[in-house]
């Protein structure tokens, strides 16, 4: 062995080691830049990702660039997003969902509109990109007649629809208000598909917390998700959330139902002001109740970690009449409020909306799966008086005051202001709903307070279905 040979061998070893080192470093660097395991997840798994419909809002989402999205889709020839096959596969063994209906539904709907991106045809799908979604404002657009509406029957959805809101079972003779859908200006509105919706919401919990208008939206979503058909397999799981009817109470504090095949839970908790309410004397049923303006309802704090989608609303209970009737006493910072300004209802409401938004926003980092929404105020349409002075909303001609919303920004300045700079999204239904004065219960209220019209609540099926269309598009 010569020295040269030894050095040659050593040299080769060193070279090999260097090459290996370079390879390792390159690999690690590539891995970090482009983690294959995440980027090339089967399309099926992306499908189930909660963030898949929110590309613009998930900075760490590897699909969050147009290039990667484009790269991913063509490589998955059996991409379930683009074929109806997938739907069939998932819904193949329904114990409750009628096969015939499922098939019919597929034949008419080869591109299952799962969310905004998938609502496009395969061809235009590739051309989708994020900027398109960013300019899309669901609150601007117009109402258009749609013979595929309503999405469920006001007679059929007996399990979840309160009879007081099911206008089909009242004396109301005209139902043209049922036949409209909202067409946003710069974006496509995915046609609601209850199978796709439930699949997307697999193992997820959607919670509405708010007043009776929130309850209307909850009932609407239950009817939409079930198709308004008798669905005894949907389980009442109210007990899991303590939502049971207590002795002496006229009704439970809320309701919760679970769709068994997808384990999707939809619930509603009654909290008309989004304040924590504490009786001042628990042993006295007629006790005054502390209404803590700066504390969110206990229920919301307790179950927040179980929610995937939360929709808050408040508005119409902020008046002295409601407060007095409920014996609610304003509290701030754990003490009775002494600030006269804050005692004014609009100011108190604004204070609470800001408080609850601030609290909820502070919870989002520790609840990464939660998507939080605040629904803007639902407009009232009492003409020639108020609810208790003979006010009415007798127009039954849809869109007689116009069908379009063109304004930028929300008409609900309080909620828009409170959400600014937070991660809580606005479900802006105010201007849209203002155009629909004919869609209230009107004078056909079955629980009417002596000849009074209900120009606050809406007929179901009806307008709140559109609020849910918007919600589903935003999830
Ligand atoms: C996408 O690819 C194009 C070229 O194909 C490139 O110019 C652009 O910067 C890329 N965009 C992103 C977000 O990576
Ligand atoms: C599907 O389309 C056919 C004809 O185009 C129609 O008769 C049927 O009612 C549609 N089904 C659904 C569920 O829309
Ligand atoms: C995204 O869409 C906009 C508007 O449709 C278009 O101008 C832009 O070039 C697109 N960007 C990419 C990367 O495709
Ligand atoms: C609470 O209510 C009970 C029953 O009305 C009454 O006996 C009791 O004195 C009350 N307690 C206080 C501190 O007011
Ligand atoms: C609502 O409260 C916020 C925060 O306290 C305040 O900045 C804003 O001016 C208030 N708006 C109204 C209309 O009272
Ligand atoms: C109910 O209200 C209508 C119009 O507001 C009025 O014409 C009618 O007389 C009222 N009926 C009763 C019983 O008060």
UniProtKB/TrEMBL annotation:
The UniProt record lists the Trichome birefringence-like N-terminal domain at 135-188
User: Which sequence ranges are marked TM in the entry?
Assistant: 12-31
Q: Which family does it belong to?
A: Belongs to the PC-esterase family. TBL subfamily.
> Which keywords does the record carry?
Membrane, Signal-anchor, Transmembrane, Transmembrane helix
Q: How does it sit in the membrane?
A: Single-pass membrane protein
GO molecular function per UniProt: acetyltransferase activity
An annotated GO cellular component of this protein is: Golgi apparatus
Under the heading PANTHER family, the entry gives: N-ACETYLNEURAMINATE 9-O-ACETYLTRANSFERASE, PROTEIN TRICHOME BIREFRINGENCE-LIKE 14-RELATED
Which ranges carry the Trichome birefringence-like C-terminal domain? 189-473
Instruction: Give the matching InterPro entries.
Output: TBL_C (IPR026057), TBL_N (IPR025846)
Q: What is this protein called?
A: Trichome birefringence-like N-terminal domain-containing protein
- Subcellular location per the Swiss-Prot or TrEMBL entry: Membrane
**Pfam families, per the entry:** PC-Esterase (PF13839), PMR5N (PF14416)
Per the record, the GO terms for biological process are: plant-type secondary cell wall biogenesis; xylan biosynthetic process; xyloglucan metabolic process
